[in-house]
User: Which sequence fits this backbone?
DNA sequence: ATGGCACTGGCACAGTGA
């Protein structure tokens, strides 16, 4: 089965891209971020016509996350337990697979603007709360995947300019330590389980011909709990929709696991 | 060093993103 994540930068603006992509890539689960719409605007009927169930946690203008799944979705949770948040950034749910229940945690992590700002401080407290909550989630759901737009380039090789951008947003030691602390919970970056092309990125700036020059960052990730690692068969970034007209600035990431 | 571009709300342009 295939599980994917895609920051669509407005589902209103990108609905046709999502539908076209799902036709070409009929994944079992697609986690979306940056819906930028309230729940009542979510195009549930058209996605159901495409065969998908949906769990939605929307918000007007900013943020907003959803899980699309061919299989029924149950036990939906919203945001980080014990952490009061005005933003709609996390939706979690369980689907049943042949190997047992699979817990899906879909996150749109805080951007953080720049070190030293209030937004960066929010990012740090958000990441701390996420880690503490995930420790419990993992204990309750051993088969778990944490995926989405992390807004963290975990290593130098995940950035087109690790020297010039050293200690700037997405690259700071503090953010990378938080990423490592998620791995220390018993999660694995599935992309790095497999041989990958050099300079593999999942986001490119709209400006300055970022995509054409491959000036990108790998900030969209699919982490899997250690029990799932033997079932992981491949993880790829699909750059195709980034070349379409009026694209999202992010590309989908897809994990294949034994069902 | 700065801006580059895209999106939303709402109808001018500020806020946000990464």
Assistant:
């Amino acid at each position: 089965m295939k599980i994917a994540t895609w920051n669509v930068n407005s589902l209103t603006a990108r609905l046709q891209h999502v539908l076209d992509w799902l036709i070409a890539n009929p994944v079992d689960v697609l986690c979306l971020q940056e819906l930028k719409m309230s729940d009542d605007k979510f195009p549930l009927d058209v996605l159901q016509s495409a065969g998908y169930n949906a769990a939605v946690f929307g918000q007007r203008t900013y943020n907003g996350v959803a899980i699309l799944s061919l299989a029924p979705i149950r036990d939906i949770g919203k945001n980080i337990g014990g952490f009061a948040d005005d933003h709609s950034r996390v939706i979690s749910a369980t689907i049943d697979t042949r190997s047992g229940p699979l817990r899906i945690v879909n996150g749109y992590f805080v951007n953080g603007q720049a070190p030293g700002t209030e937004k960066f401080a929010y990012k740090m407290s958000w990441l701390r709360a996420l880690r503490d909550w995930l420790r419990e989630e993992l204990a309750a759901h051993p088969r778990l995947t944490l995926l989405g737009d992390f807004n963290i380039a975990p290593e130098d090789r995940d950035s087109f300019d690790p020297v010039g951008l050293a200690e700037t947003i997405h690259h700071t030691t503090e953010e990378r330590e938080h990423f490592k602390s998620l791995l220390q919970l018993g999660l694995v970056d599935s992309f790095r389980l497999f041989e990958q092309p050099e300079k593999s990125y999942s986001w490119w700036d709209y400006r300055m011909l970022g995509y054409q020059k491959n000036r990108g960052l790998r900030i969209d990730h699919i982490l899997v709990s250690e029990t799932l690692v033997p079932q992981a068969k491949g993880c790829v970034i699909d750059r195709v929709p980034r070349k379409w007209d009026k694209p999202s600035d992010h590309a989908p990431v897809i994990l294949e696991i034994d069902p």
User: Anything to note?
Assistant: Chain A has a mean pLDDT of 97.
